[in-house]
Structure formats: C-alpha cells, structure tokens
Predict the structure of Lysosomal Pro-X carboxypeptidase-like.
Amino acid sequence: MNNRLFLFQWLLLLLLFIFTKTSISSKLHKIPRLTPLRDQNINQESNSTNLPKEFETYYYTQTLDHFNYRPKSYKTFKQRYIINSKYWGGSNSSSPIFAYFGAEDSIDSDPLDIGFLTDFAPQFKALLVYIEHRYYGKSKPFETMEEALKDEDIRGYFNSAQAIADYAEILLHIKEKYSAQMSPIIVIGGSYGGMLASWFRLKYPHIALSALASSAPILYFDNITPQNGYYSIVSKDFKEASKSCYRTIRKSWSIIDRIASKNNGLSYLSQKFKTCSQLNDSFELKDYLNFKYSSAVSIMIHQVIQ
Ligand SMILES: *[C@@H]1O[C@H](CO)[C@@H](O)[C@H](O)[C@H]1NC(C)=O
Ligand SMILES: *[C@@H]1O[C@H](CO)[C@@H](O)[C@H](O)[C@H]1NC(C)=O
Ligand SMILES: *[C@@H]1O[C@H](CO)[C@@H](O)[C@H](O)[C@H]1NC(C)=O
C-alpha cells in the first residue's frame, strides 16, 4: 500500500471505528481495518529483523506493575521498541520525537505500514519511535498470551493504564539515552492505539506535547455512544449509495435465517455461497457477509477520498 494512500486513511477516515479481531475480543464483530491484513494470531513468532536497517530494534526491561508494591509487581518483562534515527536532528536539538503506540497486535510490520511517520520525519527532523503494546508480539511477560491470561495474578496487568505507563517509561528512557531532553514528544496511534495516545496526553501531559489519535473510537463506550454506532454508519453509507441495495441487504438476514431453518437449508446455503466448509449455523454466513459489507464501506469511503 503506498504511503499517500495511507496518509489519507490516517487523517480522513475519522468516522471509521476500526477494531481488529484479537482472541480477547473474539466475541466482538470483526470490523475490518484498512491496514494490510496480517495473520492476527497473536502467538505467531514475530520478527522485526526483516525491517530495513534504519529501523533498530531494542528491548526495555519493563516493570509489570506500575502502580502497586506487591511482590508480583516487581516482575519485569522485555518490551520491544523500534527506533529510526535516520532523519533526526540529533542530541540536544529541539527536533521532535514521533512516538507511535502499538495497539492490540505485534508491532512487526507497523514501521513499514505506518507511512505517516516516515513521510513527515524528514521535514521535522524527527526521531521515530515505535513501541509494542505489552502482551503482544515480543513483549510478553510469559511465553504465550494464553499462559499470561491463565495466570490470574498476571492477567490483571493486561490493561491500558499499565500500557500507557509502559510507554511513559520507555519514552523517558529514550529521552535520556539520546540526550533528547529538548525534543518535544508527539504521540501517535490508530484505532485502539489512538485511544491510548489521547489518554496518554491526558495522563502524562509533561511527557507528550500533543497526541494524534487517528480513527480512534475514544468515546465508543456503553452509555456514551450507542453500541451499534459502527454499523449504523455502515448502513448509512449503503443507504446513501443505493436505497435498493440497502433494502436488499436488510431483507436478506431474515431470508437467510428462514432458509437455514429448513431441511437441508444449510447445505443449500453452503452450495449457493460456495463456502469452503459446510455451514453449521446461519450466523457463520451472516457474520461473514457482515464483514464483507463493512470492508466494502471502508473501500467506498476510500475511493471518495481519492
Ligand atoms: C527473524 O528473521 C531473521 C532473518 O530473516 C532470522 O535469521 C531469525 O532467525 C528470525 N528470528 C525468529 C525468532 O524468527
Ligand atoms: C548534549 O548535551 C550533553 C550535556 O550538556 C553533552 O554531554 C553531550 O555531549 C551533548 N551531545 C551532543 C551530541 O552535542
Ligand atoms: C462447522 O463446524 C466444523 C467443526 O467445528 C468446522 O470445521 C467448520 O469450519 C464449520 N463451518 C464453518 C462454515 O465455519
């Protein structure tokens, strides 16, 4: 995906609340995100050694618990961050630091996917920093996510307050290591990462001068935003593009259910939709179509912007 395309996505798709599927939120609907879809298996071996050489990988010895003094709190883990200093104005300069906050995935391909940072780095002589979110990729307090979540003492440290405290600690460490005391820090994130960026600016205003939260559903919580907020926008887009298309899709759900409830109905649907395996439930089909329609909306918006 070229960088210009990516810039558009970053800046303009404010209406898209993009959640990715993780094992934690597997109960949520899969809402497509526009970055190239990777294997979302969070236990996959991650590897950032294939990045171009200006991206250097480091590990910070991170404290598991930033807020308590229990014995377990002192446990540490290795947290990965990646630095690109190719464009940086240098120590003791006031060139900024652009800090990209990892979200609910390994950070492996983020330095290449997030063109926004490298696009703007030369102009601002910025130091680029990408930090991986705790419990993902190579930044796990246990070998696997499953192990970490099984352990009830450890599971509790998997939260966003701890995650942004991690980011604060690493950014202060980097400021020191690079003699960058004069460098203002701009924190940047997309989707959940954007929520983290905005919370970071609120909680650590002395560390970040500003935050860029892209496509971040900051107020997408119960009792603030209706929980059908995402899909009501998807529906609205279809309605605006074609009323009859909208009506057809709307009617299809109950028709699918009706056919599925008949004898051999699921086999019939499996054949009609050429599913790779036999459908066990109409939900499997509806969920898939849902996903496809939502992706189509992202692409529609994309083309309008282009
Ligand atoms: C990461 O990739 C490099 C180069 O492709 C390879 O040498 C290394 O063994 C890989 N590490 C892991 C943990 O997969
Ligand atoms: C930056 O300032 C520190 C403290 O004054 C000094 O020790 C260091 O050599 C300076 N670094 C550069 C690259 O000028
Ligand atoms: C139906 O269930 C089987 C067994 O669990 C599974 O392998 C298959 O993928 C399911 N079908 C679909 C369409 O998800």
